[in-house]
Design brief:
three-stranded antiparallel sheet; 3 helices; six-stranded mixed sheet; alpha+beta; globular; about 40% strand; Immunoglobulin-like
Amino acid sequence: MPKIKKCKGIGLCGLLTALFVLPLAQGHSMYQSAVLLDFRGNVVDAELQLPLDRLAISFKQTVDEQHFAAQQGLLRAYLQAHIQPVTPDQVPFRVTPGSLSIQQVEGAPYLVARLTLAPPPGHGPDRFLLHYDAITHEIVTHVALVSIRSDSKTEIKEPLLIGVIRGERKTVNVERPALLGVKR
């Protein structure tokens, strides 16, 4: 069996660490999407952050400042087709689109979309399944990080990562932070 030499000094090991490990440690790279959930009363506000280059591939149209005004209706329809929150017994939530904008997120252009997720009558927002496949339905290597950013019943100091959408995994189980033991 060949002997593996230990790295000494910065050299090759430092370079490999800088190239491969450090980018993974960042919270949000330009190739990832984010779904940020804010529990507010009996609804959940969602902020979606989608990198424009990846979105253009799955949306099958260029998405940029020049085309944005004409595409807003189509982009809203695309997002509504790719985010489906449901109760644990599969009753759908109502998804209401809010604002859309193109913003810089960590130095890269992103579509930032706001949606309101309202549970069906007789159900609350405390537990639900989030079926989500924006971009990932076309780019199977794309990653969407799902986090709870805030909750009116608890104090959350930073977003709480609750799931990752990638590959064949298109559903995240969402539980309100108060149910997870996060205290005010």
